[in-house]
Hints:
The protein is α+β, with helices and mostly antiparallel strands and about 525 residues long. It has 15 helices and 22 strands. A seven-stranded antiparallel sheet has the order 7-6-5-11-10-9-8, with helices on both faces.
Amino acid sequence: MITPMSEQPVTPEVEWQRLSPRNLLIDPVKVLGQFAFPAAVALFGISSGDRGMPWWALPFVVLGAVAFGALPWLTTFYRTTDTQFQIRSGLLNKKTKTAPLDRVRSVDLEASLLHRVVGLTKVQIGTGVDDDRITLDSLTAVDADGLRSFLLSRRAAPAPAPTAEVGTAPAAVQAQEPARVLAEIDWAWLRFAPFSPARLVVLAAAVGALSQFGDQLPVADTAESAWSWVHQFALTLVIAGLFAGGLTSWVLVAVTGYIVQWWNMRLTREAGSLHLTAGLFTTRSITVEEQRVRGVELKEPVLLRLVGGAELSTLATGVGSGGVTAILPPCPRSVAGSVGADVLETDAPMTVRLTAHGPAARRRSRIRQLWGALFVTAVSLAASIRFDAVPGWVPAVVAVVSIAFAALVGESAYRHLGHASTSDHLVVGSGDLTRVRTVLEHDGIIGWVVRQSLFQRRLAPGHAGRDDGRRGREGRRPRHPAVRSDPSRRRVDAGRAHTPARLRTHERPSGSGPEGRSRV
C-alpha cells in the first residue's frame, strides 16, 4: 500500500544559523591590523618624497577594511541535521562542507585574548580524513561548548533501538561516565622551563632583530660609546655581565612562555576522549578520541634529562601535527610516565626494560655521526687554505672538538636504541641526544617497511619502520621509525611477533647475500 504524499510524515527542515553577531567586533579589527602597516607606508610614502597616499583616502581604507572584515559573518552559515554537520560559506564562490556526525573525531575550542574580551570562541571540527578542519569563527562561549558536547555525544552514542520510546536518550548518553582528571598543572614544574630549548628560537629571533635594527635606535651612539669605555677598562666584567644578562633573559623568556602556553592546564578523560585545556591569553581546548590513540611518545631532551624531566605526546591518526599531540608540558619523568600509563591503561610499556642492540648498531651510530664531523673539519680546512685570516691551527682544533662531539653523540644514540614487546604494545627506544620511547599498540601496526643500504646488507644492521594508522577514509597514516640499526633477522622476527599475518619473508637463493629480503 502506498501512502499518499499528503499523509507521509514530513521531516522539518533544519534552519541555517549564523555566527555570533559579536563576530563583527572581531574580524574588522583583524583586517585593520593586517592593513595598518601597508596603509601607513602608503599614507606617508616609502621615502620623504610626495608619492604617499593622500590623507583623504584614509577613511576609504578604513571603511574598506571594515566591510571586508564583515564578509565572514554575512556569508557563513551552519546547521546540524540528524546525520550531518554542515557549513556554507563564500560570496561569489559558494562552498559547502559536511561532516557525518559519526565521523567527528575531535572538536577543539580556541579563544584568543580578543575573542575572550567579547565572549567568543573558535570551534575546529576534525574528522580524521586529513589535516583540514571545519572551522567556525566565532560562536559564543556557551554555544561553542554546547556544540562540542553535542557532537562528541552523538559520535559516541549508538543508534537508538526501533522500540525505544520517543524522547528517550540513548543509553550511552544517559550513562556517560563523569570526567576523570589525569593531570593538572603544578607550578613546581616551572623549574623545567629553562631546560626546554623550544623557546630558544624566540630569544634568538629577538637578538637577531636587535642586531638588525640596533643601529636605528636613538640611543645607538650613546650605547656604542659606553661599550667602548667599558671594553677598555673591564673586559672580564663585560663578558661576565653579558653571560649573566643572556642567562637571565633566557630564563625569563622560557618561564614566561611556559606560563602563557600551559596556564591552567588540565587533562581529563571524558566521553571516550582525552580532553586537554590550557592557555593564558589564547585558551585551547583539544579533544583526542581514545579509539584513535595508537600509543604515546615520551621524550627526554638532553637538558631536561639532566634534571629528571620529560615531555609526553599521544600518537593518534588524523589529530595533531603528523599524528602527534602534546598532552603534557615539561614535567617530572615520573609524572609523564604515570600519565602515559593512564592513557594506555597499563603501566607495562612505560616501565619495561628494552632489549639493547648489538655491537654492529654501536658501530653504525658512531659512523653516522662521524660523517658530520668530517664535513665540518673539511670546511674549516678549506677556509684556512682559502683565507689568510683563518689561522692554520683552527682546522686541527675543529677536528678534535667535532670528532669528540660526534663520538659522544654516537654513543648516546646507541644507548637510546632498544625495543621490547608487551601483551598489547610494541615499545621502541630511539633518539640521538633526545631519548625517545615510542609505545604503539599492536592493532595500530598495519605494515612494516625494512630498509637496508648496500653497506647495511654487508654489515647486517638496518632500519625498520611501521605505519600506525588505517587506510582509506581514516586519513593519512603517520609513519614512525620502529626498530633501528638492528640485525635484519631480529627485525623480521619482531615483525612476525607483532603482526604475524602481515610480514612475509622471502629468502634469497643460497650465496646471494647474508640476509633474506623482507617486504610488506
